[in-house]
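INPUT
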Amino acid sequence: MRSRSRFHKPLLLAAGVLLVFTLFSLSLKRSPVTQRLEGVIISLTAPGLQILRSGGEAVKRLWTGYFYLVGVQRENELLRRRLAEAEQMEVRYQEALKAVQRLEALLDLKRQLALPVIGARVVAYDPSLWSRAVIIDQGRTAGVEAGQAVVAPAGIVGRVAEVYPRHAKVMLIVDRLSGADAMVQRTRVRGILQGKGANRSTLEYVPKSADVQVGDVVLSSGLGGIYPAGLVFGRVSAVNRRGPGVFQEVEVTPAVDLSTLEEVLVVKTAKLALTP
Amino acid sequence: MVGSLLLALLGLALFYFQNLVLYPYVHVRLLSLLVFAVGLRQPLGVAAAVAVPLGLLQDAYALTPLGLHLSGALILLATARSFQRRLLLAGPGSQTLAAAGALALEEVFLRLTLAFVGLPALPWRATGGVAILATALLAPLIFAGLKHTDLFLRRLGWRSLREQE
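OUTPUT
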């Protein structure tokens, strides 16, 4: 019994180190085992998030529509209740109107793209600061594949990094591993749009002599085979030509608010596998 | 077993809360703090049974290699065990300081690991430091929460999480 407890801690330590190294090496080799493990975890936990998200919206509607008015005087109760009901209806109407507007914008984008697309909802975010990714509610069963572009009405969101049976993980354009061929709309100057983490991205390899100004629109060039040509990445928010080297520093703010995504489109044709 | 499951479920609830309520406005590392607090107060088996699923949960939602957050959780666990032997963490001040130290150590370890596997380095920003400090300030709350969970379970007739080992 004593020898068991003596070996208990070293054994746990060895098991922990072995587990981490095994997972790391499998993950770096992009083994299907780690993808399946991730898929199982996401399949088990993402539906809970989906339910809570929709439940939370209902509670929010109830709060803004009714409880906000708690504390009214007795003689005004009836009127206030009617007002609360009306406000609740108004909130519902506004929510429905916003949803219709969002879906109309998506439909317009679908027509503009003239490419086969899959509509999807964002169900979860990676809340850590180590990467920028979202989970969408469409996966392999809906025809989503790794490398497909993900877009929103305002512009490009990112690309599919991992696919699970009913969900997919999308790498946002601001993730540090994201890179895509891009060009400035006004001058056709080209560069590589590189994610920088948080909500930042930069246009790399733009010579100092090239004409790039704050406010310029940055588009996808279509080269590289990931994003369809002509879609908006964002706008130039800062230019610095004073640094060392032959290239200027061009900071690009994404056109899409990547922290408040709701509905997106997965473009089915443009794709490039992320792995060799 | 029940204790580990309950604590892992508490971790899942914190992950949901972070995803649905705090993101993208507030960046605090609630799961890291929970793993540290559990590592400090609970037996090693229970703490490991909480740290592994919570590490894997964070890994599954991130783009970093599977195992990164898991190794971070194990580092927090090891730090907690080391602090448990050397420091008396009874007051809120010492708990906050210990949590800040452990979270900073985790941050350095994760950055070194990312550099070691050849991934682009994350620039040092004030946001990361503020997130660590804000999380550390929540340490007394998490410690008190775990203590009360223990008492609540005992009142229900269950054995305490520590006794179950």
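end of record. Confidence is low (pLDDT under 50) at residues 271-276 of chain A.
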